[in-house]
Design a protein that fits this description.
Layout lengths: L20 H12 L1 E4 L5 H21 L3 H6 L5 E3 L6 H7 L2 H11 L4 E10 L26 E7 L11 E3 L11 H7 E2 L8 E5 L4 E2 L9 E9 L9 H5 L7 H7 L9 H13 L1
Helix pairs in contact: 1-5
Length: 275
Amino acid sequence: MNMANEKSYGVRERTAEPADNFDAAIEALQYRGFAVIPNALSLERVAELNTRLDKVYAQQCEEVGGEENLLAISDADIVRCPLAYDDIFMDLALNPAIIEVAKRLIGPNVLLLMQNGVINRPERVQVQTSWHRDLNYQHWVCSRPLAISAMVCLEDFNEETGGTIYLAGSHKAEAMPSEAALNSLNQTPPATAGSIVLFDSMVFHRAGINRSGRVRRGVNHVIGAPILAQAVDIPNMRRRSTPSDPFVAGYLGYRWNPAPSVVEWRQKKIGAKRG
């Protein structure tokens, strides 16, 4: 049914028609809680990211003495902060679609709170199959998003592959919906490999059960206002000098990390003033 010419009355305010695909995705995200941007990455890039994600996960397992130790703490198949291990994930975190939507929704100053790879194996139930918000343990709502999430699909995301299930509109209510409401609210938006699923970080969601017989991978980014804190200290993990690009420096947290002392905080301010 075409709703383009639907009439209304008593309406004094209305959102302007989307100027581009980003505006359309943002409007869907604001009202429904999630939106899909298709074909954001080439399939060649997707294949390379799949291979590199497995390599970083193997390295992280080795760091803690084997995958059995990650299984013991319910952290298996989560690849934390891969951009600190491989620059291909740094490039991914700076994907133009992710950055543009984050800026339009949150503002010019945005902070990458976390980047996590998620591996959903058909023979293993992923810990992310539990309902959660990406801002964990929070039960409040904002008139504007305080943080958004960007899941980069490295495999087709759908009901068969265990694609993410969202509770539509749950970013507008403080409490998690009742059991009775879950069936009517849950939606799994289909997204092909190379797509990005954008969602309000306060939307309740969970990974589905992978019944496809193949591994389904994705890389999630949580991007918020700089008043929030990173889950992992990205500047410390990367162990590199501050990026010359002021936006990238702020996005990665170099600008917003707490100063070690009052003197250093003031010296940084003085240097910026002189510069």
